[in-house]
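Predict both folds.
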Amino acid sequence: SSGINAEYGGLAAPFYSIEKDIRSVPVLLNEGRTVRAQLLTIFMFTACYSILSMFADSLMYSLFYELSEAELIYIDLILAMSIDLMLGYSESRETIATSRATKQFFNSFRLLSMFCFLSVCVAVQFSFIYYLEDQSWYVHIPTTTDELTDGSMDATYIFLLIIFQMTFPAIVYTMDKEPVYKNRSMLCLLAILYCFNTYLDIFPGTFVIELFEFSVSPSMWFRVQVILIAAANLLVSIVIEILFIINCPNN
């Protein structure tokens, strides 16, 4: 058995070894289910991120606005890529789940869960735009059908909202597996992202405003409301996912 590593050697041990020992079997089963759960979480995060991006872009295009290049780079390269990488660092559970794993990698339960999550986020985006445009200090930038305009208040605050929304799947879709607070790498990353996102929203400096082409609200209370709206969005998404977990625990 010198050519077989300890884990796989343990699987075959009862058939050729004097000492009958299959202690590695639970470890292999546990790690196998962890990898499967990680792949599902990464898939759902990527799908939600892509669909949220599509709806935000569609909303902006309908108003003849667009996100700036710096905003798109921050979303695609810094936020999404870093979360995708950290989702793969979750550790396996200490005990094996008693329920049998489903045969399908992606089933109707997950599809309905994702649909509810995205519906809430998209509804918040559209409602937020109407709320923004209803403010007394809101400045409308004239647009034309021939060319998209960036640097508007609409584009600025949709960006500041979706950078919070795009972190939510990393929290919501790990609750029934290994909670995000047990993944230290992910927890540290989310803390850094939330601090930076809050800085972009509440106290953006001149350099940041010019780089991201922000049109900042003069109302500090409105800037705080962006974070409160995002927090309420996350809370509703968590409650919905908990209801799914309670009613379909084996999925």
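Second protein follows, with its predicted structure tokens after the sequence.
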Amino acid sequence: GDRVDVHWKYGEKEEEHKGFFGVEWLRQNCYSTINTSERRRKLIEPLVAKSLPIVNYTEVEKSDEGLFRWMKELCDYGVCILTDVPPEKGQVVKVAEKIGYIQETAYGRYFDVASYDSADLAYTDSELLLHSDQQFYSYPPGIQLLHFLKFDDCVEGGINCILDSFPVLNDFRKKFPQHFETLTKTRGAWERFHLNEGSNPMIRPTALRNEKYHISLDSFGDVNEFIWHQGMVGPVRIPEASECLCASAREHMLVHTYTGACGAIL
């Protein structure tokens, strides 16, 4: 059949209980070496440009199947290109609301990236190095949506780069095991203190600080989370650890800056 039925008794009265588990679900979550290796392989294999998943917005808008496909691509690869989204201001909110509640930040419900006289690099025409966003929050947004409203001859710059950090970190781990271990066991600091944002009306006064590990490992010892943002690094308040942390962070910057472009880290 296509499912396994489990019957058992529970409690002092030994009440009868039943559970039904689909064969496909059991296969996806079984503990066999083959299945475990397959799940881990998705995080180890590099994600290259030619394999970036693409979904058309019409599919997402008109069917649950299209929405599920988009969500699955995001879960499997951490990034997905959604094409043919109407180029209207605020449309990104409508897209986001299809998958969950929007988490407001110091930037508001959503924000337009434009050039202002601002202390925030995101609102200037300066280059943004590879980074992961909003790390000064205890719970940073899990999914970030970027909606490009203009993409033609009238636009200068705006080149984006997405880095698959897992193969970079695996390489870093082999070459610099001591520095890798430091970044998994010593908390870094991420902060944002801006009380006057110049001419930018879109950012609220902010005073936030959070401490967390640069690299987190799962139960198999594989990397499952990575945090990096040079523009938000705060002072480490552990004197004996600061020198090791700085040395490890410096070494990692040399490893991954070969990309030479602005963008996000997955």
